[in-house]
């Protein structure tokens, strides 16, 4: 059985999440059904010393001094990029050109031009490249896509996608790289890719965007306690439409008191509606307007579909399909999807093209915010 050898670039929150996903795959999927195994064989971080400590702590065979060292290693098949956003392009490009498969965190790059170049290079080189849009792999999102494909919503008329955190409100919280323009545009670049990808995945391609950013706190505190002037959005609001004629909104905010990790959406069609919240990740709510509505409402109303752990084959059914599932399950699904494509030599979806599509919308919305005008995507 073939073993896929992974070089992990970045060992922060997402580096740990990806390592956890690779190591736990054999619980969630039977190895015999997958026909491959995978191991993180080397890591690198912002310094060799940090990578060495991490490698020792998590039992990883090797620490490297740089992403380039991992890319040059013939014993590594896949480069998995979990660094701050500005590094994605350079590392992904070098890895593709060396013929390695690449898994890259969102947002794929800092600009649409960079993302489109990566998507083109991946195709030219014939290497398997995936963008981490992990929410696609939660059971309710998979079921939502099935219901739309089955025609249960009919023509989609409207939608609302939102992703809310509260992290820009706390006056004592020190500013991190994700809040800065240097890292690619604040909350819009951090949370926007997740909801834009879901909007694309469930509702189709957009025809226009009208975006507006918000900064509610002109200053924050740096790690050393000094004052930092806010230079990127803390929230971003978009009105948009699809090529098929649906209209809706995409909103991201780190200014929402009481919000933890609140990704939610509603999609409304002629025949029915869907709604979902990541804080309630075991259920998808479905309204079937074709159900009998009389007498006294008949049986019409929202159905709470118990998606829970009912993943299709080759999922192993562990833990029990009735056991509550959470955010990490989406990362497991995303990882197995990518590694299966690598093992079979087939294209991965979500691909770098999907990442580039999202990057184009991110950029168009920023342009709209800058100019105060709607940006056409046709
Ligand atoms: N898909 C998701 O659910 C999700 C969630 C959070 C973050 N992200 C994305 O994951 C990526 C990483 O975010 P994070 O939260 O893990 O950040 P983090 O700050 O926790 O970790 C970043 C890591 O990158 C390493 N790094 C920095 N410079 C480096 C260099 N030159 N060479 C090698 N390594 C370097 C750091 O040592 C650190 O280990 C970002 O692109 C972010 O947008 C995705």
Please summarize what this structure is.
The chain is α/β, with parallel strands linked by helices.
> What oligomeric arrangement do these chains adopt?
single chain
Tally of DSSP helical segments = 10
Which secondary-structure class do the elements indicate? Answer: alpha/beta
Dominant shape: globular
How many strand segments?
A: 17
What is the CATH superfamily label of the largest domain? Dihydrodipicolinate Reductase, domain 2
Q: How many independent structural domains?
A: 2
The CATH class of the largest domain turns out to be Alpha Beta
Share of residues in helices: 25-40%
The overall pLDDT, averaged over residues, is 97
Question: pLDDT under 50 segments (min length 5)?
Answer: none
Assess the beta-strand content as a share of residues: 25-35%
Query: How would you characterize the largest beta sheet?
Result: 9 strands, mixed
Spatial sequence of strands, sheet with the most strands: 16-15-14-13-7-12-11-8-17
Query: Could you tell me how far the N terminus lies from the C terminus, measured between alpha carbons in angstroms?
Result: 46 Å
Explain the overall architecture.
There is one protein chain. With 378 residues, the protein is of the alpha/beta class. The chain has two domains: 2-135, NAD(P)-binding Rossmann-like Domain (Rossmann fold, 3-Layer(aba) Sandwich), CATH 3.40.50.720; 139-325, Dihydrodipicolinate Reductase, domain 2 (2-Layer Sandwich). The chain has ten helices and 17 strands. It has helices at residues 13-28, 31-34, 48-58, 67-72, 88-97, 112-125, 139-149, 186-203, 327-344, 352-371; strands at 2-9, 36-44, 62-63, 78-81, 101-104, 129-131, 156-164, 206-214, 219-221, 227-229, 235-242, 247-253, 262-269, 272-277, 283-288, 302-306, 375-376. Strands 16-15-14-13-7-12-11-8-17 form a nine-stranded mixed sheet. Strands 3-2-1-4-5-6 form a six-stranded parallel sheet, sandwiched between helices. Helix 1 (13-28) crosses helix 9 and helix 5 (88-97) runs parallel beside helix 6. The longest helix is centred in the last third of the chain and has 20 residues, at 352-371. The structure holds nicotinamide-adenine-dinucleotide. Residues 9-15, 44-46, 50, 67, 82-85, 87, 105-106, 132, 134, 190 line the site of nicotinamide-adenine-dinucleotide.
């Amino acid at each position: 059985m073939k073993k896929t050898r992974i070089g992990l670039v970045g060992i922060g929150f997402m580096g740990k999440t990806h390592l956890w996903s690779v190591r736990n795959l054999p619980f969630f999927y039977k190895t015999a059904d997958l026909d491959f195994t995978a191991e993180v064989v080397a890591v690198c971080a912002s310094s060799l010393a940090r990578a060495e400590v991490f490698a020792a702590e998590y039992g990883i065979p090797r620490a490297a001094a740089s992403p380039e060292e991992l890319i040059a290693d013939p014993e590594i098949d896949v480069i998995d990029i979990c660094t701050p956003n500005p590094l994605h392009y350079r590392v992904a490009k070098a890895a593709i050109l060396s013929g390695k498969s690449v898994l890259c965190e969102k947002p794929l790059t800092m600009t649409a031009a960079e993302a489109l170049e990566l998507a083109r290079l991946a195709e030219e080189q014939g290497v398997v490249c995936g963008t981490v849009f992990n929410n696609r792999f939660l059971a309710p999102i998979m079921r939502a896509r099935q219901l739309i494909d089955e025609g249960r919503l009919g023509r989609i008329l409207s939608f609302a996608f939102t992703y809310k955190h509260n992290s820009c409100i706390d006056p004592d919280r020190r500013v991190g790289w994700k809040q800065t323009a240097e890292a690619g545009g604040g909350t819009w670049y951090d949370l926007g890719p997740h909801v834009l990808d879901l909007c694309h995945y469930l509702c189709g391609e957009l025809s226009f965007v009208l975006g507006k950013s918000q900064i509610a706190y002109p200053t924050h505190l740096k790690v050393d306690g000094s004052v930092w002037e806010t230079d990127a959005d803390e929230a971003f609001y978009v009105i948009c439409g699809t090529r098929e004629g649906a209209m809706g909104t995409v909103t991201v905010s780190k200014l929402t008191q009481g919000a933890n990790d609140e990704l939610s959406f509603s999609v409304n069609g002629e025949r029915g509606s869907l709604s979902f919240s990541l804080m309630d990740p075991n259920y998808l709510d479905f309204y079937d307007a074709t159900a009998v509505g009389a007498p006294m409402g008949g049986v019409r109303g929202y159905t709470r579909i118990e998606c829970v752990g009912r993943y299709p084959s080759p999922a192993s059914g562990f833990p029990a399909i009735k056991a509550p599932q959470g955010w990490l399950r989406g990362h497991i699904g995303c990882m197995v999807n990518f590694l299966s494509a690598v093992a079979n030599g087939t294209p991965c979806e979500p691909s770098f093209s999907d990442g580039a599509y999202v990057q184009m919308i991110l950029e168009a919305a920023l342009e709209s915010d800058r100019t105060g005008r709607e940006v056409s995507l046709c």
